[in-house]
Every structure is written in structure tokens, then in C-alpha cells.
Write a structure and sequence with these properties.
Elements (H helix, E strand, L loop, with lengths): L23 H9 L7 H44 L6 H38 L17 H8 L2 H27 L1 H5 L6 H42 L3 H12 L2 H22 L5 E4 L4 E6 L9 E7 L1 H12 L3 E4 L1 H10 L11 H14 L4
Parallel strand pairs: 1-4
Antiparallel strand pairs: 1-2, 2-3
Helix pairs in contact: 2-3, 2-7, 5-7
């Protein structure tokens, strides 16, 4: 009996099965690592199509220029041999061949540049522009035999094998069906001139290449759709991963609690500093205390300068006594103000009458009316 571990075949990631949609942060981090939904077949298909179309338009020029270069080099060889008086003119031949290679490279350079541009545009259209060097960095995890074994026998490897077989079948079928229709022209190659034979072979190869590239593009687009689906599935998260990411984004609960406590303390200090400006403090009398201020130049209605419950209410009343702010007991009004108006908020219209009566009483005591 052989022992086995089913976790060997499970997807990576703690917290169970990956059932949750990937978050924006997960996708952004993956993009930074160079993990994107991209099909290399798209660039290959468009590159192949562009190559054969260019050759169809440019092949005549290439053939003419090549024959011209060959004639020039062939004509220079006798002079090079005479210059060395029968000795092997290796140096002269090297110079001639090097010059010919440079000319040939310049001849095919436009094709190479167009191929590069096509491949670059195809990749850019798939993944947009965000270069990163992280995929190029060496990783020790790639040297793991266990992970290497899993990659060899993974669904992705099987899919790549299927694509390779499909491409071979398509290329083989296209080549067979096309060449079968042109066998008559191929059999007369020995009976025509060299230039005509080269032109005919070039025409057959280019037309066949364009047909293969057109069908290859269909495979490429299907592969692109598969790569997008696979990337989305790979990016899915477990419930635990979502919770951990949310926790990291929100911060540690203890740190957040301390931050909120400091904010409350700072707000309380500001509130107590403004308390001497209040016109009146309305109390419950023991549970609630609400400080009211009316400034017609600032607001059209009275507003709450400070409020508190239990211990804070006691501190507000002590501060009011120290600053000679009137304290008025009105249990229903204190509860309504505390429950419905925030610090800095205006008194609601339904409480205008009750608050106005309290303010009138206070103003009368202070001789303001």
C-alpha cells in the first residue's frame, strides 16, 4: 500500500478552496509581479502573418538585391586571389564575406523591425504598459523538484501539449491541402529557368504561410480567451485570504483602537476648550449634559458646543461652574439633544421652542433681555 497526501493536488493558498473573486489589490500585486492574462500565440500569429505579407510585397526587391550583391562579391574574388599571388586570400575573402553579410542584414532589417513592432503592439494590447523586472529575478522556489514535478503534470502543461498538437495538425493539414492543389506547378520546376523556379517556390511558400497564419490566428484568439479564464481562476482567493487582506488593509485592530482613542481625546480637549463660550448647559441632571451656544452672526439657529454622558457630563458641569456658565436642568430636552445632535451640529427645528425658552431664561438671569 502506498501512502499519499491529497493536499499535493490542492491549489495553493491557505483557508480552503478558492471560491472568492480576486480583489483589486490582489490583481494589482499580481500585475506588479508580472502575472498577467497574456497569450504568446497572439504575437506569434500576427507576427507570422505580418512576415509573410511583407515577404509577398518585398520578395521581388529582396531577390533582385541579393543577386546584385552576389554578382558584386563573385566579381571581387578574382582580384582578391591575384592580389595574394596564388596564396590563400583568407583575409581578403573575410572582408568580402563580412561586407556581404552586412548588406544582407541591412536588406532584411526592415522585416525584423516590423516583426518586433508587431509583437510589441500585440503584447501592449493584451496587458497595457506597465514594465516590471520582477519576473527576471532568480527564485529558489523554481529549483524545487516537487514544484517542478507539479508543473510538469499540471493542467497548464496538458493544455500546452494540446495546443502544440493542434498547431501541428493545422499546419500539416494546410500544407498538404494547399500543396496537393499545386503539384502540377511543383513538378515543372526542373523544366523552367532558375529565376522562374525561385519565384514560383517563393510564391508557394508565401501563400501557404499566409493561409497557415490566418488559421493560426483563430487558435491564438481561442488561447487568449483560455488564458484570461485561467488567470481569473488562478487569482481567485479563499475566504481566509480575503479576511487577511482586509485586515492588513484596515490595519491592526489594537492600533486602530488606539488611534480612535487618541482622536476621541483630542476631540474632547477641543470640546472642553470651547465650553466657556457656551450660553447654557442643559442637564438630565446626572446622566447627560449638553452645552448650547447661540451666535446669530455665525448660524441661524443655536448649536451644540459640547455634550457628554455620565463621567463626561460631570466634567462638563464642573467646567461650566468654573467658567460661570448657567446650568439648567431639563431632562427631556437634555436626552433629545444628546441623542439627536452631534457636537457642532445645529439644533433641529422641532426643538427650537424648548431651547429658545431655556436661552430666554438664561438671558433674563444675566440681564441680557
Amino acid at each position: 500500500m502506498l501512502s499519499y497526501n491529497l493536499q499535493f493536488f490542492a491549489k495553493d493558498g491557505p483557508g480552503g478552496e478558492k471560491t472568492e473573486e480576486p480583489t483589486a489589490k490582489k490583481l494589482s500585486d499580481a500585475r506588479g509581479e508580472g502575472q498577467v492574462a497574456k497569450s504568446k500565440e497572439i504575437a506569434n500569429a500576427f507576427g507570422m502573418l505580418a512576415l509573410f505579407i511583407i515577404l509577398k510585397l518585398y520578395l521581388g526587391t529582396i531577390g533582385t538585391r541579393f543577386i546584385e550583391y552576389f554578382n558584386v562579391v563573385y566579381g571581387q574574388m578574382p582580384d582578391a586571389i591575384k592580389r595574394y599571388e596564388g596564396q590563400t586570400p583568407i583575409a581578403a575573402l573575410q572582408v568580402i564575406i563580412r561586407s556581404m553579410m552586412v548588406q544582407l542584414l541591412l536588406l532584411i532589417l526592415p522585416i525584423l523591425l516590423i516583426g518586433f513592432v508587431v509583437a510589441f503592439i500585440c503584447d501592449l494590447m493584451q496587458v497595457k504598459w506597465r514594465p516590471t523586472t520582477k519576473p527576471m529575478r532568480p527564485k529558489l522556489s523554481k529549483l524545487s523538484p516537487l514544484k517542478g514535478f507539479k508543473r510538469i503534470f499540471s493542467a497548464n502543461s496538458l493544455m500546452e501539449l494540446f495546443k502544440s498538437i493542434l498547431k501541428l495538425l493545422v499546419i500539416g493539414y494546410m500544407a498538404y491541402s494547399y500543396l496537393k492543389g499545386r503539384l502540377g506547378q511543383i513538378f515543372i520546376l526542373y523544366d523552367i529557368t532558375l529565376n522562374r523556379a525561385i519565384g514560383l517556390i517563393g510564391e508557394i511558400v508565401i501563400d501557404l504561410g499566409i493561409r497557415i497564419a490566418a488559421v493560426y490566428m483563430v487558435i491564438a484568439f481561442l488561447d487568449y480567451a483560455y488564458q484570461k479564464w485561467k488567470f481569473h481562476e488562478d487569482m481567485k482567493m479563499t475566504k481566509q485570504e480575503v479576511k487577511d487582506e482586509f485586515k492588513n488593509a484596515e490595519g491592526d485592530p489594537q492600533i486602530k483602537g488606539k488611534q480612535k482613542q487618541r482622536m476621541r481625546e483630542a476631540s474632547m480637549r477641543r470640546m472642553m476648550q470651547q465650553l466657556p463660550e457656551a450660553d447654557v448647559v442643559i442637564t438630565n441632571p446626572t446622566h447627560y449634559a449638553v452645552a448650547i451656544k447661540y451666535d446669530p452672526d455665525k448660524y441661524d439657529a443655536p448649536y451644540v458646543l459640547a455634550k457628554g454622558e455620565d463621567y463626561l457630563a460631570l466634567k462638563i458641569k464642573e467646567a461650566a461652574k468654573e467658567n460661570n456658565v448657567e446650568i439648567v436642568e431639563n431632562k427631556p430636552l437634555a436626552r433629545m439633544l444628546y441623542a439627536n445632535v452631534d457636537v457642532g451640529g445645529l439644533v433641529p427645528p422641532e426643538l427650537y421652542q424648548a431651547v429658545a425658552e431655556v436661552l430666554a431664561f438664561v438671558y433674563h438671569l444675566k440681564g441680557k433681555i
